[in-house]
Structure formats: structure tokens, C-alpha cells
Amino acid sequence: MVDEPESLLPIANVGRIMKQILPPNAKISKEAKQTIQECATEFISFVTGEASERCHKENRKTVNGDDICWALSNLGFDNYAEAMARYLHKYREYERERNRINNNNNQTLATTSGDKKDDEDLHFRIEEQGVRQVETHQSVAPLEFQFIDKGKSSTSEPGGG
Questions:
Q1: Coiled-coil ranges per the record (predicted)?
Q2: How far apart are CA 122 and CA 70, in angstroms?
Q3: Are 72 and 93 found together in one domain?
Q4: pTM for the complete prediction?
């Protein structure tokens, strides 16, 4: 096991993740948090070590998401690998969409802000040109994990159907 505190996952984050999956009134002991902290840290080290070895053999310096999926599968965690691959695909779609929106925002602002008038004039000129106003902080919805247990999501009521 890992002994150095700085090499462990932050205990507050571990506790927060544990609380998310348990009923609201559940209590978690410090010992339980520490045990999960050590196990999760060891698991992550185990998987990333396997992925890192693959990268080393392929003369690459950077471990990416595909390497982690491969390592999970190679170590016998096929269910995790499949779920991680699906999440990675969705994450990449999200990033592409976010970049597309940011690029569109930048192009719209660049083509309408020629003479540096104040924001109200810019807003007015955008409307005059028939261009829909695009907020500069527009983004797509963030990804969300849902824990699935025997066909029911964690958001369903316990014991309910």
C-alpha cells in the first residue's frame, strides 16, 4: 500500500464521492474513508502503471484515455474498460462541441467588432446585420456520471420501480 500522504487521493474528495452514492442519512467513518482512499489510489496507480508501460513500449511519453481503457481491459476490468470507453467517447464529443461553439463565438465577435464601439453598439450592430446574438460564455451541458445497478440508475428511488 501507499504510505506517503501526498501520494494519496485527497480524503475530502474520496469522502464526497462516497457520500454521493450512499443514502443522504448515511454516516461514513474516518477509517472507511481512509480505506477507500488507499484502495482507490492503489487501483489508479495499478492501471496507470500498466498504461504507462504500454506507452513506453510504443516510445510515447503521454498516457491518454485510450491507454487507460486498454490497461483496464488488459488487467481484466473489462466492464470498467467498456464504461470508460463510452464515457471517453462522450467526453470527446462534448469537447468538440464546446470548441465549435467557442470558435463560432470568436468568429461572430471578430466580424462584428470592427471599430471597437462599446458593448451596446456592438449588440445593436449584430442585430442590424441579422446575426443572432451569441453569448460569449455559451457552453454545452457538462457530462454527468450515473451509476447503474441491475438496470436501474442511481437516481431512481431505493426499492422503487
A1: none
A2: 50
A3: no
A4: 0.61
